[in-house]
């Protein structure tokens, strides 16, 4: 278990350094992340490298037996590079060309950017690759963030055509797959194909947009993998890159991205910018589990919230105890390295409002003492569970193809994607709401990419929301899972669109019809409205989408009960026996409370033990090398009644359990 | 009477075709619309025509004694055309240049587009013009839709200058008419004149914007008329084009557009996209009457709502009976041909969420059975009334010049135009609210362009809202109408702006002062707020705009009664005797309920029989060839109390009456 | 005291002129403003001048012993200028290039525009400079309005680089000052520096944006000063330019702008466009005082609201009495010249909805009679106080550097700048709320730029909100003020950022720590939420921002009392003795009511007499040449209870007091 901090020595004077490292060690930190935005410092002129600056600070780190993670600095680039190759920048969907002066503006399709990246990464790898204190490499910083996962430049357009040619071989094949006959847009030359950028009213072909998102993902991934290849050539240190929240903001296939990297890193900001409240704790847990699930093993929090942060506006101030609790939560959910963002607050620059552990001065803050204390309290537990597999009876599966699909075709206003700085993404919210059900019932829950290598049969219950676009192979795998006794919880609109973006001829739920034992011929997209349901005596609430279920072999679990709807009395949730297993099918998006009600029933059915200790209490179990643990956390400002004795505001309680 | 369907054989395999036509006939359909987006299919290479595809399907249609409408395919164009002539696309107001991949992007000012259109239309006309089963031609598809009524390209700018030169002859004349002396923008060369595109804060001269809208209208109309001329050369089949909702979204003069065409077509979508509720039924009727009124005779619904539709989000699900009722309503309001959009739902492409009569598969849906049943039930009635003039005691007049005027100068936030996909257009809403008054009082009501050929003297009551910009000739015609005994209902801000966009010197209502018998010297634009009024004992509500009426010879009908307004007690509605007739003048925009109260009084005054059967019931009369009819429709989910016996949800009742 | 009117003879025929001037004189007006948009009229071709038009109207003015103010016409320019020099226009932040057809589109960085301006201004100055009836010059019109204070053109970029080179001399110095090492954007050539225009996600360096704003201000000022220099060369008449509301919309340093001009002019619109209510009266007074304070002496209202106005939508209708009251308010607050906007309403052009004293015709309106009566009633008072210094015990200081700072770094959603046509500017609202406290307590209050020449020691109380970025010199001056017995009211986030945009190392309130006797280590930005406070027994409300005060030598005045906040009980307002004076420090933004409560206490402390006569009553004192005056104004539609006898709606009462 490593506790560290993100450190920017270049923002301070050399005489600060020793004092800084002293304070870090006093706090219990043993590692720093360095250099991620320092390209201009290391290559001040094209091809002229100068590592003396970082050599000096690394020497001090080494002499203290501390370690460092080195970031490749390609998330920004030096002005001289843009001056010489002005074509290296991205273009926005609405046609705005990026310029120098900010970050994340490079086009992954630019040969000049790739070449320059190769050069600086090679130089760094050669210089530092074998350094004994080098703990790991972080490639780039938050690749795809801030809209950089989608580039509409001419260079992107050019590569998109090449990518399409590789995929479809012939234009006939492309036209057929896309259904170009629709609106008569049949391409007769590869160069006629545009990039689906700005448009005025009607949109581009959805199959084309889907392909464009796949292409963009491939461009980004091949760029990161190119760096990984170079690093591996010169260094044995493990390689990662740090992901940004929210999980489904980008169109990038993060599962594929990490297949060539050694471990996953995640930047964990339960609150940011002008948010007046932090995310609900199940949303934070779901993102931590997302990070854990990408490689289905321990992960790193590369940037852990330490103080109020924002670029030009700020918000919520965490009460005493909360930042310590967030640290604990991250470790409980599988982090085995946690780096705080950041050590001391920059006095200048775009992040002069991103408060770190220290403020702008050197005064030891309350944050410093709170984090120090938490590290001391949880270290033993953390060391014991670090790297030990995180077992769970429930898993929820996500799928990047459907993330992309719902981004450009959200079906309901309630599922609309809004790329605000901290995005409200339809898929995100729906996914987190599903995740919250078992999380609030205190059942360990995994979040996995659908193409995970994990053995699905280890799970008692698998949740699969928004799986509209399907892949035959996965459908077979899931069928087998149910046939062999698993319980599948399937969401509305499942299994009705193939990988070419064609709707299937079969009624909803398409390829899952037999599994679900029902058909859907009518639906209503209710946007942000709510609809009433009833499960036995329990009232429930649905939103976003209402399918009218017609059970064939399935049994009715809940029905619509809203007097304003003509489909009052129609089934909304059904359950169907299939093989040795069972499929729950939910025709609407439930409110969090209703999800809990439903999952109580499902978990009972699956014989998974659960509990409910209130909306703000989270309880998880972990297995350690020496002990097992039950961790209970109070995520609210109020004392809790349960479990007895009640938890104080933001208290965490780690109960050690002898191994059986 | 013809019932048909919009059919895209190119989206299915040839073996589907016979099955499809079987089903259509089973449902009672005898005609299909074809080919409207199929340019690339018929001219795969420049100048190389290939009609074999449509020949095959038409042969099948013919052999079944069915008929077809043929769309010219110019609403999209083949990618090869854009590749060769990249200048053919429009540019948006904010400077975004359209590209290939969507639809409606061609610039009507582009010579290359015109030339290519001539070629494909000529080829189609030659090939199919004399086909015995060819029922009619539909030129283009929804011309002007999706923002294509306004083009800000360089080609448009060039033609705008030519248009202005033809209109004004000299720059002196243009400068004087526009009042270019204002802000000192006096043009000294034709090439100095810009297109009123993007601007940052202050706007362009309103007279210039008005001219730009007129110019755009002329460009679009001349393009459609060019196609009409070609078709007439080779074919005797009647010609139309299909209009899109909302009526006043575009700046195009649709009345003028149809003068060269044979009949009007309208695309009737009472609900679309992410709407959570359909439009109120009087709004739907007002749009049907708008379509009927353009040529003051029977019209075609070229696209009749059949299933939930949208491009990337969806909404309201019509309860059982409602789509049948909508069909009936269209026929009642004067449609003599109705084509459903669409037969089967496309499995791919931008409209894969536009659900047709069938869903993505071939399963016979509830929609199929409901529409089949309705067609059977109403066919006899429909056949009898088809083509028989639709008589009405009340007419409401609209004017494209004021549509344009209010678009760029809405006066009040309550009248603002919002070009959302399904537009909230100030003029539309105000107009429909006026229309609703007599519609809800179950009086047949016409909606006519002010320059209609219809004889106004046949109407007992004429409503004229938002007639701010006036034309001398029309003013005289209306004066004569009142002088001879007609009742005119005139709205606020009437008659105060001439065709050059100059405000008159006389006080409001300007040229209508004598008619209205009052003056207005003060007004308040209350945006989206409400204001209280009182008509005798009846409380009323006004909104959007409040004129303070100063009656000269007029009598006060209603006064402002709002304690918060200093003009409490000031007249808001007056009536004035003029010649043998009378003028009601309304100084505010009334709420729907208040309009009903007022029109009860006006209709009584005009000796027009009326009734009120509740907000959801619509009753109309029609004369047939053999019988007369009274049709009563319940547009709500609830049973009605009136008329006795009450109507079931979405029930229509067609009462046959012997001719006197 | 002069009452005049803005007159555009070029919008009327010559035969109107005599009638117009008759009416003006009948109303009591003796001066007109002319020519401000008439460049194309005076220079119809490049270098060809023609002043005959204005000669004719001026002759008539002169013959009536009236006077005129002459506007230089550079706020628009003739189309021929744009045709010849298309590069003279500005570019918006999002990259939209301005074109001809509107106004305020010229780039202050364009040499061609400067040269053409020099030529027309020189010609006017030579022709009219010594005219005996010429009262004053108005340079340009509302410079910086409508976004023209920020230009993102290539010419601006070029000049920005030159400006930076002059400021920083070397790139090392620039890189160090900006902290370019942040995100590694270290410039190695001047031409690499971009203009901080459009960006996609992350912003530009705040120090760079601050410099860009300073640069833009310098560009605009040097342009206006260039005109002033020319005018002075040929004319002895005093020079001004007219400022637009809101005070802090532009980034221009208006204090610096006026140092070379002779007097300040202000365009006073208490309501405009689609506003449904006028600004609260303290906001209007604060803007009048802003205008007065820029040179700390009498000022001119160059455009005084006379009728409902807007470009394409309208709003509020002032009840009888209100426009007369607004006129009186302007005089009371220090205006010694008032020109109404405008004489008669233009029948054409972009401002055909900007209603003047007359409407579109020549009918004498209620506005005409109301203003005529008010002028008669207040003339004696106005003549007596005109030019006599306006004494005040309280002053509030504003600072353009912080206006700029909060524009790009608002800290809290509650302080966000929104550049709507009539802007909601965070700084404006916060500043006006502070100002309102003493204004509503009927204490004469000055509003001064912090770099004012005024002697601060004359004030009993000085308010200083949002003084985050500090200047050493001003800090010393304020320290001295307090040390010598002054009372300072200091707002949250004071004194923590130096002029290079670096945050200081010291805790908040940074350089004011000793003065305030407290420290702040924690804060919360609560956006548009509210928080409860308590001052003794009085409940108060805070918003926007909450600092947690840690008093060292200060005493607690109020504490947070909100049960939802963990910092309940923490001090929110403190007071600290410093030297002979005292510092009140407010850690939050108070609601207007709470500000009044606090200022009652402060004014009592400062021994400044105050009163409270209700939210709508404003009372001020003025000293005249012969008498002193107490003026009481009722800004509401309701009769007041106080003072006795109550004031009628919109009544003003001017009480003459014998000089002691």
From TrEMBL, chains A, B, C:
Q: Which residues form the Glycoside hydrolase family 42 N-terminal domain?
A: 6-380
Q: Which CDD domains match?
A: A4_beta-galactosidase_middle_domain
Q: What is the lineage of its organism?
A: Bacteria, Pseudomonadati, Spirochaetota, Spirochaetia, Leptospirales
> Which catalytic residues are annotated?
142, 303
Instruction: Give the enzyme class.
Output: hydrolase
Name used for this protein in its record? Beta-galactosidase
Its cellular-component GO annotations read: beta-galactosidase complex
InterPro entries the record matches: Beta_galactosidase_Trimer, Class_I_gatase-like, GH, Glyco_hydro_42, Glyco_hydro_42_N
Q: What is its EC number?
A: 3.2.1.23
């Amino acid at each position: 278990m490593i506790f560290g901090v993100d450190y920017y020595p270049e923002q301070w004077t050399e005489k600060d350094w020793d004092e800084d490292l002293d304070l870090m060690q006093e706090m219990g930190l043993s590692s720093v992340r360095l250099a991620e935005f320092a390209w201009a410092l290391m290559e001040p002129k094209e091809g002229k490298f100068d590592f003396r600056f970082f050599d000096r600070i690394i020497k001090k780190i080494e002499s203290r037996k501390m370690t460092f993670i080195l970031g490749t600095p390609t998330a920004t680039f030096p002005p001289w590079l843009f001056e010489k190759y002005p074509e290296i920048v991205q273009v926005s969907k609405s046609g705005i060309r990026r310029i120098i002066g900010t970050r994340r503006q490079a086009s992954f399709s630019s040969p000049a950017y790739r070449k320059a990246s190769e050069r600086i990464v090679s130089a760094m790898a050669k210089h530092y690759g074998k350094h004994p204190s080098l703990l790991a490499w972080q490639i780039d910083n938050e690749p795809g963030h801030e809209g950089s996962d989608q580039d509409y430049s001419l260079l992107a357009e050019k590569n998109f055509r090449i990518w399409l040619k590789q995929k479809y071989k012939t234009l006939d094949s492309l036209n057929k797959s896309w259904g170009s006959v629709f609106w008569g847009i049949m391409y007769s030359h590869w160069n006629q194909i545009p990039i689906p950028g700005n448009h005025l009213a009607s949109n581009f072909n959805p199959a084309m947009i889907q392909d464009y998102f796949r292409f963009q993902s491939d461009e980004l991934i091949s760029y990161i993998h190119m760096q990984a290849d170079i690093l591996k050539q010169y260094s044995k240190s493990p390689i990662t890159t740090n992901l940004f929240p929210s999980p489904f903001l980008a169109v990038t296939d993060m599962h594929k991205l990490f297949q060539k990297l050694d471990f996953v890193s995640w930047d964990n900001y339960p609150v940011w910018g002008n948010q007046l409240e932090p995310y609900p704790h199940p949303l934070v847990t779901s993102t931590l589990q997302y990070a854990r699930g990408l490689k289905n093993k321990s992960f790193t929090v590369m940037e852990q919230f330490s103080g109020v942060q924002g670029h030009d506006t700020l918000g919520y101030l965490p009460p005493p105890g909360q930042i310590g609790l967030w640290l604990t939560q991250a470790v409980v959910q599988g982090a085995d390295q946690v780096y705080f963002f950041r050590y001391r607050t920059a006095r200048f620059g775009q992040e002069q409002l991103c408060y770190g552990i220290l403020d702008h001065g050197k005064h030891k803050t309350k944050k410093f003492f709170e984090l120090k204390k938490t590290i001391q309290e949880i270290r033993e537990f953390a060391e014991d569970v670090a790297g030990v597999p995180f077992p769970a009876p429930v898993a929820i599966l996500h799928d990047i193809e459907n993330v992309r699909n719902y981004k450009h075709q959200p079906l309901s206003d309630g599922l609309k994607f809004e790329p605000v700085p901290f995005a409200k993404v339809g898929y995100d919210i729906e996914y987190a709401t599903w995740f919250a059900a078992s999380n609030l019932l205190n059942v360990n829950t995994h979040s996995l990419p659908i193409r995970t290598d994990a053995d699905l049969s280890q799970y008692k219950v698998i949740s699969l929301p928004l799986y509209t676009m399907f892949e035959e192979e996965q459908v077979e795998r899931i069928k087998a899972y149910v046939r062999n006794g698993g319980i599948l919880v399937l969401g509305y609109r499942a299994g009705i669109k193939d990988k070419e973006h064609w709707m299937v001829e079969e009624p909803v739920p398409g390829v899952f019809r037999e599994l679900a034992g029902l058909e859907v011929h009518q639906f209503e997209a209710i946007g942000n409205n709510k609809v009433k349901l009833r499960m036995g005596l329990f009232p429930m609430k649905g939103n976003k989408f209402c399918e009218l279920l017609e059970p064939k072999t399935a049994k009715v679990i809940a029905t619509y009960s809203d007097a304003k709807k003509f489909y009052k009395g129609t089934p909304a949730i059904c359950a169907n026996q299939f093989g040795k297993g069972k499929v729950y099918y939910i025709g609407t998006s439930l409110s969090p409370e209703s999800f809990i009600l439903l999952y109580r029933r499902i978990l009972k059915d699956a014989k998974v033990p659960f509990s409910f200790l209130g909306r703000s209490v989270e309880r998880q179990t972990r297995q350690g090398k020496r002990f097992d643990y039950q961790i209970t956390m109070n995520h609210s400002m109020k004392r809790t009644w349960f479990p007895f004795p009640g938890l104080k505001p933001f208290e965490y309680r780690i109960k050690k359990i002898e191994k059986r």
